[in-house]
Amino acid sequence: MSFLRLKLFGRPEVWLDGKPVTGLNNKALAILFYVATSRQTHSREALAGLLWSDFTEQRARGNLRVELGKLRPYFPHHLNIQRNSIAFDFDSKYDIDIVTFEDCLNRPQPTAEQMETAVKQYQGDFLTDFTLKGAPLFEEWQLIQQERLRQAALSSLNRLVNGYAEQKMYDGAIMAVRQLIAIEPWLESSHQELMRLLTLNGQKLTALSQYDSLAQILEEELGAEPSPETKILYQQILNNDLESDPDANALRIEAKPTQPVPFQPLPLSSHFVGRELEIESLSQTLTQPNGPHLMALVGMGGIGKTTLANQLSHALRNHFADGVLWADAAASEPLDILYSWGQAFGFDFSGLSGVKNRAAAVRGMLADKQVLIVLDDVFDVSRIRPLLPNGPSCAILLTTRDLDAAIALDATVLQIEELTVENGRQLLINILGEERVNSELKAADEIGQLLEYHPLAMEICAQRLKSRRRRRLVDMATQLREVQNRLDLEMSDRVVKTSFEVSWQALDANHKKVFTQLAVFKIRPFPPHAASAVIEKNLYQTEDLLFTLNALSLLREAGETHFRFHALLAGFALEKLGNGLFEVNGRMAKYYQTFAEAHQEEYDALIPEWGNLLASMQVAHQQENWEQVLAYGQALLEPWFAQARYVDIQAGMVWVKEAASALKDEPTLAYFEMKLGQVLIERSEYDTAVVHLEQSLTRFEVLDNQARIGEIKFNLARVAKEQGNYETALDLLMESKKIRQHLGDERGLAAIMYREARLWTVFGPDMRKAEELALNAAEIQKALQDNYWQLNS
Length: 793
Prior knowledge:
This protein is α/β, with parallel strands linked by helices. The chain is about 60% helix and about 5% strand. The protein is built from 38 helices and 14 strands. The two termini are about 60 Å apart.
């Protein structure tokens, strides 16, 4: 019997009897990898659907037969291929790194030796660079496995580091923490631990050098600098203040104040009814030790998914000791959601660029926490996937109108239906009072029937009746019937729009105008000040109008300071606004321009408004208000960079460049061209970055702006270094250095020397020259009364 070896960590490799297997395409390999790692027997139908989901069942199964025919000659002893099923034969001779990895860790109490054996298998992410065209379900499975295995490796390495450190077995601890850094190089806590361990192991110089490595990683990958805690640790090592007791060392770094347990759900609804069976089922599922821990509430818009999720969050508050996190998945960007979750636990992730880096930080933060996460109104799987944690004690509840999205996320689905007759009647009683409903019970039941017991539709009609105490329920039923008969809509749409239309008709002219004008915010949360500018009312009048619309369930409160539309109502209001959109959009854009200019250094004020700011800037661009577009760019550029909002910058800079071109403003065009190039460097899009930097360089050469020319060459040197063109990078740095010297720019000169020092560590390498340059740079910084680690290189 032949011996099969599968290496699936890192780039996959397949060996038979010591020889690599070639000639198999990725579809055939995917079948082998899937059955070997899932450890289950799979039906042909399921495998065909996994790999050819866009094909007809007959064609998919035909393709599967072809690929199995390719696999049989290679693996007759390892694949058990039957007429209706395929499985891996685990009685055959094999060595599969992931199987060894999981067998070591899937024990009640794995020993240090077993964990060491496991992490030695981890030589990179699962199936690195392995791609399949036209197989989205396989790709999703692959991504889930990658993250699951990655988190298992990180957890095991952390346990090894802590265990070895407690026993003062520093060599083992150092080896484990270095592997942690190899997996997540930007995770600062791992570098701190390595610095401590190296110092305690008598390797002070190596520990100090590790600080430099961390500083370079943070600067080049995240555009950030080491934290105050790391700087304190550096000074302790430098001054020989680090004690031999690891516990004492931990006390020397100032701890952050204790954070309250985060609880982010919405306030409880005063008229929630029914759903007892759903709450009981969800509670049991989300709190059981072995999962499933990803649940999806699926149903049409307005059916009560959000209200149910919110009610459940409050009910389970005491079960999740580390808190309940909530995110509006439709209205908020993943980057902002991750930032807010970090803040909830006392972390500032604003310096982490890109969703991938920030998501990894949040997963690390939640790895050992018992948290319930609610993702409300999910519509795009790609936006949601980075928000999913992997901690064994985390539970996720999402709401969505899209069943396919829930299935793609491998969630356990609970379909949310309309209210029962009894619960529909109780909803009316909760809002209108028992006496009023019972006095017209027949009309109350007819309202429920006409609205098909749709919660949002019934709530809006009930709130309208509540605001008109003398109006009879039978009159409301008659109006609903008349409006419904006029609407040429699908049944589910007709029910919802009927209630909207009836409530709309009952509004006075002032409230109608306000309701429609607020449609410019769509589903984005907005504060009363912004609404005041849009509807042209003073703040007191605006707040009164907003609370009235909220009381009628035509708006909802979003946190303590903002309001927002339900998605269905936003579309309805926008339809009613019609041709007035251009003018009202202009008022929104003017307000947020003033807001951006007034708060460009107050990040706490800007953070809740990022979505409205970018949308308003886009409005200015669409309306070709070029001066306003430039004003946005000038006000937001620095805050965007400071908060690592590179996607926003990339979009905004395109608009600003178009505005500057239209205004024939060459200096502004050249400047923002340069800033766009810098953003692309941060996003590792080096070739495109060079194009923009060189275009900017040409413009500044015509303008004879030496300072900007020196800055651009400095950035081009960064690109050259990243692409391995060290000689070119050094030449560009020397050109930039001459310009800085000519301009007398000491701070810029120090930054170049520091960058030059780093370059010499790899070019040559010449460590002596690198050390000399770094010391000279430090002297300049000292003369400028600046710290060595604050170099803006």
